[in-house]
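Hello forum,

I keep getting stuck at the same step: I have a sequence, I want structure tokens, and every attempt I make locally crashes halfway through. Rather than fight my setup again tonight, could one of you with a working pipeline run this one for me? It's a single chain of 150 residues.
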Amino acid sequence: MQLYRKGFRELTTEELYKILKLRVAVFVVEQNCPYMELDDLDQSAIHVWMEDEDGILAYLRVMDKGAENEAVSLGRVIAVKRRRGFGSRILSEGIRTAKECFHADSIDLEAQVSAKKFYEKQGFRQISEVFLLDGIPHVKMRMDRRSGRL
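Reply #2:
Ran it on my machine without issues. Output:
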């Protein structure tokens, strides 16, 4: 298994294609949620993924302050093979990337309510009421020095 961390302009066309194909398969098709997956944030993001000979196992993107939120943020978190630890590993790599590349003192994300406990285990805490994002219930979550993990 190989870990990758690349800025948009460092991605090969094949890597970008695999990433976008996976994101559309999960967030649009699997979740039956038609929305604009290509949101113009990828160009300023750092893309982090794990891959083996069968393809991408887990993916997320990390964005600097001001790109999507006031804080450094994580988004598009995907673990292809669920319940095998890949989600936790990619989230840890995303947190590490946020700290190393953007000097994050807090990290925000918008979590689907069904995944809230997953993020809490990593040190994120809920900071908003439930809201609908593309028809799916979400909460805003934050990790900062108060969590003891940043």
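The domain at 2-147 is CATH 3.40.630.30 (Aminopeptidase). If your local run keeps crashing, start a new thread with the error log.
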